[in-house]
Automatic annotation (TrEMBL):
<keyword id="KW-0378">Hydrolase</keyword>
<keyword id="KW-0862">Zinc</keyword>
<feature type="active site" description="Proton donor/acceptor">
    <location>
        <position position="428"/>
    </location>
</feature>
<dbReference type="InterPro" id="IPR000834">
    <property type="entry name" value="Peptidase_M14"/>
</dbReference>
<keyword id="KW-0645">Protease</keyword>
<comment type="similarity">
    <text>Belongs to the peptidase M14 family.</text>
</comment>
<keyword id="KW-0732">Signal</keyword>
<dbReference type="Pfam" id="PF00246">
    <property type="entry name" value="Peptidase_M14"/>
</dbReference>
<dbReference type="GO" id="GO:0004181">
    <property type="term" value="F:metallocarboxypeptidase activity"/>
</dbReference>
<feature type="domain" description="Peptidase M14">
    <location>
        <begin position="127"/>
        <end position="460"/>
    </location>
</feature>
<dbReference type="GO" id="GO:0008270">
    <property type="term" value="F:zinc ion binding"/>
</dbReference>
<protein>
    <submittedName>
        <fullName>Zn-dependent exopeptidase</fullName>
    </submittedName>
</protein>
<dbReference type="GO" id="GO:0006508">
    <property type="term" value="P:proteolysis"/>
</dbReference>
<feature type="signal peptide">
    <location>
        <begin position="1"/>
        <end position="16"/>
    </location>
</feature>
<keyword id="KW-0482">Metalloprotease</keyword>
Length: 467
């Protein structure tokens, strides 16, 4: 089975001593898209996203001191404003710690999330989960609840680590053909808190169902009946898809993004180790062929944080992600969890959507070299009108739940009609380009995303799990 995923597009970035989170603002979105085109070396997170903010548009990025100086010198201040949001190395001293032990004692203790806690209870979860604790948490949930089945994906990482997932439903034994929602996180090592978000959400569902209670995420509440609906959708999830990278990032605090495969590495250059797993799928993987020459959604340079690898699905981590679709053939809704931009992305992602001209689709070689410029009218990606309505509705419902809880990519079905259709999304939680949350932000991220996950499941049930 072929799987085509676009989880977001990131230009290259460099790791430097002085690194800043910045906001670029302009009245016209086209001016910011020009920045993305001219400054491909900036770190825009998972994908360069131009956001509407009141009477202007904004673009967030992480830049080193040289890049910041270059932007200040070359930008027209009358057209584009650049604001420094934070100095990341200084901010790093305030970030939530990584837990050093195993709070779940090898599976003897099950995690309990925030949505089931009473207002009088502490919301202190401890530090961010380390790699060992992610597996231990899954074992704890399996030991505590009958309707929770863990699995080990088929391929080990370069460093020999296994990648673990689980399936959860209302039934005591999860039936593979009854699983309709697929959630993943931890592709990008530096995006701390993603695995925690998923694990605590699933633990909330199981605890609430077991104790016949609802869930509360700040200003958003869900009944026990809604908890049962969410569980009844059948959820498969992998909380940490890149354990090698996560372990390396947690040990070095260097905002590492890729995995740790040295196959393309250059001796003496540590930045050339690893592949950006988010660029390793076969959705328009050969971007130099498929996209306009001015668009750089990935990189052929191993030193780039957006290096796409030696071929589509060259990495065990992406192969493992794909393998779940073979094991659970009726998945209809997929969401990959990232940070830190505070956006929700949905298919297609290679260009602007349209529902008029079916010839403008990613399989048509006539449009090779013309995709990716979002401000032109030469090419727009075709999507069925009903599918577009469904993915947009789901994205808006999920975003609304997250905003209410907050304080002040997909399988290509239109080529193969026999393939199971999957609506794909990327959730970008957190605060602009702050990949290492503070302890307070860490807790708020869990509340935000868990409300979003809940709405995602309920809306999927409402739109449809099959058909």
């Amino acid at each position: 089975m072929k799987l085509y995923i676009l989880l977001g597009l990131l230009p290259a970035c460099s790791i430097a001593l002085d690194v800043f989170s910045v906001s670029l603002a302009a009245k016209e979105a086209s001016h910011l898209y020009e920045i993305v085109s001219r400054h491909a070396d900036l770190d825009y997170g998972c994908r360069a996203v131009v956001l509407r903010s009141e009477n202007e548009h904004k673009l967030h990025a992480v830049v080193n001191s040289e890049q910041y100086g270059r932007l200040k010198r070359t930008l027209d201040p009358g057209t584009i404003r650049i604001d420094m949001l934070s100095n990341l190395p200084k901010r790093q001293t305030e970030t939530a710690p990584i837990d050093k032990g195993d709070r779940f004692q090898g599976g003897k203790i099950a995690p309990r999330g925030l949505g089931v806690r009473k207002p009088t209870e502490s919301f202190d979860l401890g530090g961010i989960l380390n790699v060992q604790e992610v597996h231990s948490a899954l074992k704890g949930l399996e030991n505590e609840y009958k309707s929770f089945d863990t699995f080990t994906t088929p391929y080990k990482t370069y460093e020999g680590q296994s990648i673990y997932g689980a399936a959860v439903s209302m039934a005591e034994k999860c039936q593979k053909d009854k699983m309709h929602i697929y959630l993943t996180s931890g592709f990008h090592a530096r995006e701390r808190g993603g695995p925690d978000n998923l694990i605590y959400f699933i633990s909330d569902l199981l605890y609430a169902n077991e104790h016949r209670i609802g869930l509360t995420y700040r200003n958003v509440t869900y009944t026990n009946s809604q908890v049962k609906i969410a569980l009844g959708t059948g959820i498969v999830f992998i909380p940490m898809l890149n354990p090698d990278g996560v372990r390396y990032d947690q040990a070095n605090n260097n905002r590492w993004r890729k995995n740790r495969n040295p196959a393309s590495a250059i001796s003496g250059d540590p930045a050339t180790v690893g592949i950006d797993l988010n660029r390793n799928f076969d959705f328009l993987w050969n971007f130099t062929k498929h996209f306009d020459p001015s668009v750089e959604p990935a990189s052929t340079d191993p030193a780039s944080a957006a290096f796409y690898g030696t071929g589509p699905f060259s990495e065990p981590e992406t192969q493992n992600m794909k393998s779940v679709y073979d094991e659970y053939p009726n998945i209809r809704w997929y969401m990959d969890v990232h940070s830190a931009a505070g956006t929700r992305l949905y298919s297609w992602g290679d260009d602007i959507n349209q529902s008029v001209d079916k010839a403008q689709n990613l399989f048509n070689p006539e449009y090779d070299g013309k995709r990716g410029i979002v401000e032109d009218s030469l090419y727009k990606e075709y999507i069925d009108e009903q599918d577009w309505h469904n993915v947009a509705l789901q994205a808006n419902m999920t975003a609304n739940a997250m905003m209410a809880a907050s304080t002040p990519r997909s399988k290509l079905w239109h080529k193969d009609k026999k393939a199971n259709k999957v609506y794909g999304y990327t959730m970008e939680f957190g605060y602009p380009e702050n990949f290492y949350p503070t302890a307070e932000e860490f807790v708020q991220n869990i509340i935000d995303t868990n409300a979003g996950f809940m709405e995602f499941c309920l809306t999927a049930d409402e739109i449809g799990l099959t058909g």
